[in-house]
Amino acid sequence: MAKLPLLAVLLFLLPLLALCAEKQVYIVYFGEHSGEKALHEIESTHHSYLLHVKKTEEEARDSLLYSYKHSINGFAAVLSPDEASRLSEMEEVVSVWRSYPRKYSLHTTRSWEFVGLEEEDGGHRPYFFKNMGEELLSKAKYGQEVVVGLLDSGVWPESQSFSDEGMGPIPKSWKGICQSGPAFNSSNCNKKIIGARYYIKGYEQNYGPLNTSLDYRSCRDTDGHGTHTSSTAGGRTVANASAIGGFARGTASGGAPLARLAIYKVCWPIPGKSKSDGNTCFDEDMFAAIDDAIADGVNVLSISIGTASALNYTDDPIAIGALHAIKKNIVVSCSAGNSGPTPSTLSNPAPWIITVGASSVDREFIAPVVLGNGKKLQGQTVTPSKLERKMYPLVYAADVVQGNVSKDMAGQCLPGSLSPEKVKGKIVLCMRGSGLRIEKGIEVKRAGGIGFILGNSKANGDELACDAHLLPATAILYTDAVKILEYINSTKNPVATIIPGKTVLHTKPAPSMAAFSSRGPNIIDPNILKPDITAPGLNILAAWTGMDSPTRYEGDHRVVKYNIFSGTSMSCPHVSGAAALLKAIHPTWSSAAIRSALMTTADVINNVGLPLTDASGEFATPFAYGSGHFSPIKAADPGLVYDASYTDYLLYLCSVGVKTVDPKFKCPTTPPTSVNLNYPSLAISKLNGTVTVKRTVTNVGWGKSIYFFTSKPPVGISIKANPCILLFDHTGQKKSFIITVEARKETLSKHQNNEYAFGWYTWSNIFHTVRSPIAVSLA
Ligand SMILES: *[C@@H]1O[C@H](CO)[C@@H](O)[C@H](O)[C@H]1NC(C)=O
Ligand SMILES: *[C@@H]1O[C@H](CO)[C@@H](O)[C@H](O)[C@H]1NC(C)=O
Ligand SMILES: *[C@@H]1O[C@H](CO)[C@@H](O)[C@H](O)[C@H]1NC(C)=O
Ligand SMILES: *[C@@H]1O[C@H](CO)[C@@H](O)[C@H](O)[C@H]1NC(C)=O
Ligand SMILES: *[C@@H]1O[C@H](CO)[C@@H](O)[C@H](O)[C@H]1NC(C)=O
Ligand SMILES: *[C@@H]1O[C@H](CO)[C@@H](O)[C@H](O)[C@H]1NC(C)=O
Ligand SMILES: *[C@@H]1O[C@H](CO)[C@@H](O)[C@H](O)[C@H]1NC(C)=O
Prior knowledge:
Blueprint: H1 3-22, E1 24-32, H2 39-53, H3 57-63, E2 64-68, E3 72-79, H4 81-88, E4 95-98, E5 105-106, H5 127-139, E6 147-152, E7 193-198, H6 201-207, H7 225-234, E8 238-241, E9 250-252, E10 260-265, E11 267-269, E12 279-281, H8 283-296, E13 300-303, E14 305-306, H9 317-327, E15 331-335, E16 354-359, E17 363-366, E18 369-371, E19 376-377, E20 392-396, H10 420-423, E21 427-431, H11 437-446, E22 451-455, E23 473-476, H12 478-490, E24 495-498, E25 502-505, E26 533-536, E27 540-543, E28 562-565, H13 568-585, H14 591-600, H15 622-625, H16 632-635, E29 640-641, H17 646-655, E30 682-687, E31 690-699, E32 705-712, E33 717-722, E34 725-728, E35 734-743, H18 745-750, E36 756-764, E37 769-778
Helix pairs in contact: 2-3, 2-4, 5-13, 7-13, 8-9
The structure holds 2-acetamido-2-deoxy-beta-D-glucopyranose (NAG) (7 copies).
Residues 185-187 line the site of one 2-acetamido-2-deoxy-beta-D-glucopyranose.
């Protein structure tokens, strides 16, 4: 009796295993739909392609996962490598790529990585919101006619941030649906969350059926990430919101607080992995979501998803999907990634996407350590529990270990490593390196410790990890950890205390680049400068799921309505929210015009009047911040924009060797070089002598105007514009100019191969400065 079911299971599994070994999901992409076929005809066309390579009708039908039929023409199917290669040889096929169980992960450093808090201060809305002014918001009607679509982990619809109280009717152009599923039905959509769909076929093809104790097969967000990003882009204004322990009390609000949200759940938990390892999102699922989002009628797409490094355009469902979205004038904003500060790490580099880096806001969460010798060391935390203001015995973890702990792990407070006898009632210094930070605190607590100091290792750089620990704690820099070690060595009875966390606002300098924000240069096309822009991504408060703790750690059972989170995942929806407002104010502007407005008005000076810095305090470069820190008020009135159409992007693709992705378009025999894409920034890689670049600006300001050219060339490079004065006599007028970029002979020999130098140029009149960063490397 016991054996029979086992055998049955094995028999059932065997064919599946065989299938897994040779067959994978491939995406077969034909480009843009010609628009002539009805939906059912398209599916049968896809089916007929499958019939070419499959033996039977049934096999062809069973292998098909998705038929993309709105804007994107293509399908996802289970194929053998041979079947895939036969399909890729067909004339009409643009590309075929295998959907690996790629480590697509949400761009989030673990929630406890940079948690923050804020005192009552009239709010901790997204940072820019404070600067944005009611005028801009009211001009944009708070975004109420704009639909922001998000590809993410779903949404927690009960959050007050998604209330539709007092909202007007849903825009008539909306064609989306509210897909029902476990714990999510049509009552969970309203006039705020106007659409919800989920995509799981690719995930289940790879991992098998969703483990329903980990997530719901519906748009309900059990992770928190999707709730956070969607409320950052378009959450309502909620008074008296707060993070864990009542910290950060104030008003929370999204960038476009009346914008409509359309939720596309594409990311799911990785079986056998902890939530803190993030989710996974499959190519074919995202591709389907983008195709639907375009057809549903979203105006802005916010995608805080990417790979660890950039993918080629035709193997990248976000890049291709975004291109189809751009054709319908949808603005697509994506996270640059969290793989910084290493160079060449950014993802989502396609020039039709807004690629967003992450930076700090002007607040810190100070919780100093005071040592028995009177020394005070700066620390940061958002831990709700507090020590009494008196001295406690202080020990270094490596001196209080139990059992067999290797020497290099001894200071790290790994689970089970501390001796309760030696730790009880004491403050323990633990070093970062291996293990989860939150777990180090839990280990100190387990061993009876009363408080915990988390020391950066040398490799952690200058960014402190603000965590909501489960016992009184603070985090300190490496140099300060060394000071504590020296103090412990210097005395028989070392003592210390941790002063409870306190928010300090208007800290300087701010903003500064987050160390984790992925950096350029762009490895897919070094002639396109990326990222495009930076926005707040460090310690951002937004709505949270009711089913995940603020630290996402399994041993943490706390529940919060709002949570503070860091990552380029958080900065991307800030830009999406701003784009929604711009879209509302300028409904006729193209996606490129909206991006240009955001980029050319971005700030490169911080709140002490100096250039933006990295976490280390060094000056940052455009490979960290792109054009600078976004400034939505200025972006609403940019003066001039660098526009680009869908056709311009097709021409650009010709120039980088991608055959046409639109059956109605043929590449010219000599396409323009990629540096001539009408981009609001300028990157020239491997300059040898002189390059001339053409750009065209459109006057979006008042009628008559004169703009003058100025530049600060990169060291050793000369920059000239012809003409250097632009005269406009009406709004909408376009003017072209040529920029000549020349390497001075004497510098050619001095430059290291492929080392970049940076500068900028501007067009300005009395009201506007239209600024473009320049990055040049020499051959
Ligand atoms: C949706 O679910 C809720 C809670 O289970 C239930 O009260 C409500 O009637 C459902 N609505 C619809 C339209 O099914
Ligand atoms: C589903 O997830 C739970 C919780 O992690 C785990 O205990 C269980 O074994 C999983 N079930 C399957 C079938 O993998
Ligand atoms: C905010 O909420 C807290 C706890 O929910 C409450 O004690 C406090 O009175 C509220 N403050 C305001 C201004 O509503
Ligand atoms: C991109 O395509 C080129 C040429 O086909 C190939 O050499 C390169 O490895 C690809 N890069 C990635 C990241 O797939
Ligand atoms: C301690 O662990 C190391 C490596 O795990 C092992 O080589 C060593 O024999 C162990 N020592 C004792 C005393 O158990
Ligand atoms: C503290 O003393 C120990 C043992 O004498 C030594 O190994 C260590 O380097 C000292 N640390 C500092 C920071 O002086
Ligand atoms: C730069 O251009 C000169 C003249 O066209 C050529 O001789 C030289 O090989 C080029 N250098 C590189 C590094 O491409």
